[in-house]
Sequence to fold (632 residues):
Amino acid sequence: MTALSPLSTTSTTGPASHPVTARPGPSGGPGGRRRRLAGGFPTLVLLVGAAYCLLPVLWVVTASTKSPAELFSTFTFAPSTHLWDDVVALTQVRNGIFWRWMANTALYAVGGGLLSVVVSGMAGYGLAKFTFVGKQLTFNIILAGVLVPGVVLAIPQYLLLAQVGLTNTYWSVLLPSIISPYGIYLARIYAAATVPDDVIEAARTDGAPEWRIFVSIAMPMMLPGLFTVFLFQFVAIWNNFMLPYIMLGDDSLFPVTVGLSGLLNQGASQPSMYSLVITGALLSILPLVALFLTLQRFWQVDLTSGAVKG
Amino acid sequence: MTQLASPPTTVAPRAAASRSGAWRRRSLAPYVYLAPAMTLFVLFLALPIGYAVYLSLRAARVSGLGLGKNSRTEVWAGFDNYARALGDPDFLASVGRVALYGLLLVPTMLGLALVFALLLDSGKARGRGFARLSIFLPYAVPAVIASLLWGFLYLPGVSPVTFVADRIGVAVPDILSSGLVVFAIANIGLWGGVGFNMIVIYTALKAIPRELFEAARLDGCSEAGVAWRIKIPIVTPSLILTFLFSMIATLQVFAEPMTLRPLTNTIASTWSPLMKVYRDAFTRDDVYSAAATSVVIAVATFALSFGFLRLVSSRAFSQENS
Fold:
């Protein structure tokens, strides 16, 4: 996993870096100008795309500063001075339940993500580094699991967990979030690519127990790949709306998505709630945005690496 | 990798003496590694699927007045639930809406993702780092929050489009009106998905050896020609997988219309097939019908996925594996 290095392809420094324009010939001059003009259009397209993607984020930042009265009266992107008032009002809703929702979301996403990495890492290592009866069948079943539409499972999962009395608990959201067929698939690729068979054999010859080989040799080698598995699962859990929406009835267990969706429903009868929902939306995406900006080099998503390296 | 643990220091003779024991432990080891995953797989994937199929073939029979503890009994219903699900006009309407939603969303999203990825990769545009980060940023925003942000931006009292249109005296249609609300929901999907797919395609583009198209460029091939004749064919497997995952996600659309519902009365409680499943199971307390509809959605997803993969696999993957 290497960092993205835009430097290797940068060519915005002038015509000198374009190999074609350096070719001798009568078309050199006009070709250079056409090339610079051609550079303007791609830039424009990318900037329009960036503006489209930033627009709602910019709006939520400015709208969070508006008072409930200003929300529907001042210009969409005109900022105001009521951010702190909105945060205080949001915190006062049901004794700060919003912050509890944030903590719950962190618990579901971090806890579920970590457990998922351990389970996927073990399974991926087992599938990549051992030959055993039923190996191909197991792998095919897991691959089929990648295609199972996850949310279709939510209702039978709910009914089954209800029979053992686990609905409306933290476990009802955590347990179904741990199993990730795609995470296992990725972990298998990483294990096959990064853990050499010789190293495992050498450790075995030295008499190291199998668990020790996995924990102190294979895991560190797979770590960058496992981190990607964690990020995927973290975002998937953070994003999942239907599972907690179905499983949980007690609002002190809600993740922030389900909680805010409930507040939005109340907005129909109490329009002042809308400002709080918007401020809550801003506060809820800040940690994720910060995480993305700091970890962006890990976001190299190669969906087909299995076809190449597997 | 530098964190290689120092080799364990157990002496060799002992290992040799217990070799047969070690062999047995090793042959058990893969099952131990796979046990947690397979246990969870069975409990939270296989069993729920089986249970949904079972429920879809059952029905509740109400005896007497339907009062009292034992007045509801479960009986075999055969394929009645399927017949009802497939003949239900609400279900067929939801399938129609989601088909239109998918036709609007998936080609637009993947087309834009491909264009952005090619522009990032070509090195011709300025501000590529900024653009890449900005376009990817919505992936960090959960679908519920994204729907909430766009939902407010769609409201005439908040919308910048309405604001400007009012000033210059032009009437604009309400995007949350019943005819246009599918565009409103597709736009949320586009906003949330284009960046992720762009990164997937961009990662595949970065993996192409530069020599492949440097030669074409020296031969006078234009940037568009390089993209069309070299880059796009090479990243086709990535495009196929992004298409597949987008299609699966489309069939499951739930969070976006559910979040928008409080802001408009044009989204029915059965707007998407999954919303109908939810309504049947929890509002109408008819888990049997909900299970049948779930199974229909799952089978349709599998059929579409495998049909699509069969259709394209001969072209896209065969040359790579040969």
Notes: The radius of gyration of chain A is 26 Å. Chain A has two domains: 19-63, 91-309. The mean pLDDT of chain A is 82.
